[in-house]
Amino acid sequence: MRFALFVWRLLSYLPTPLLGLFGYALGWCLFWVGRRTTMRNLELCFPQLSRAERARIGRRHFMRLTRALLELGLHIWQPKERTLKMVRMKGWEHLAPHLGQPVIMLNPHFVGLNNGSAMLGERLAEYTGSVTLYSRHKDPQIDALFYDARQRFGSPQLFARQDGLRGIVKQLKHGVPFFYLPDMDFNSKDAVFVPFFGVLASTLTMPSRLAAMTGARVVPVVTRQLSVWRGYEIELFPAWDDFPGADPTEDARRMNAWLEDRVREMPDQYYWVHKRFGTRPSGEKNLYK
Q1: Is the pTM of this model over 0.85?
Q2: 140, 146, 157, 222: which sits with the fewest CB atoms below 10 Å from its CB?
Q3: 152 neighbors 80 (Cβ within 8 angstroms)
Q4: Residue 176's closest CA among 205, 154, 150, 146?
Q5: How many whole angstroms separate alpha carbon 8 and alpha carbon 70?
Q6: Rounded CA gap, 173 and 178, in Å?
Q7: Element at 192 (helix H, strand E)
Q8: What is the pLDDT of residues 202-257, one digit of tens each?
Q9: Backbone phi, then psi, for 138, in 5-degree steps?
Q10: What is the helix (H) or strand (E) element at residue 263, kind and residue range?
């Protein structure tokens, strides 16, 4: 592990475009080793595409994801300016009117997530600050490394997912914006099965429940990975009207439908290496075997 961290840190000293190109090359190789889950997800979500077309998306996904993971070393070991100058922001006007009031920023898993969150966290530090959830890593060294990296950009308040939501609710009610990643399968009792690309997916109702509990507005956020020369673009979308509705299941369905539209815009940038359909309704077979 120490050797891997040493190499990762060493790579972070490369010029940023060169680091990105190296990430693309490494990701192209890694696709052939770790493609199984990605190809299954693409098969489930895009059955209308040929296997060759899905393989092209999957290969590009590994290239983009590996680039983003290598660039995460910039967050950890390099001056903050190197990361921030890679990112440009659009749509700030959709979030600014809600600052100082409860607001949830839905930030789904696209490969540029970390870079966009860094830029937005720094911007929010000038106003209200921000708060987010994180999952503790089982390796204490890695956990400490990532914790410190998250703290560098805007000093957000961090709450471990394992500790529950009480602290999040308190901060929301005090008008501190909450970064929330809504689109992973946590096999949670607080989830419902609603379609995602036509396949039932265990989907958390937390955004709907938190919005109802705190009166928060929900502002979706997406980060796009651009070329190695242009970096990233984070876009904030208008706050959703009539959210939450009367039914958390319908809210979850609406959230997934919105996310589908964003995935179709850049299918190679969604986080396909995650077993999004791992949890199944009672009696259904495992889709990854």
Answers
A1: yes
A2: 140
A3: yes
A4: 154
A5: 7
A6: 10
A7: strand 191-196
A8: 999 999 999 999 999 999 999 999 999 999 999 999 999 999 999 999 999 999 99
A9: -70, -25
A10: helix 248-265
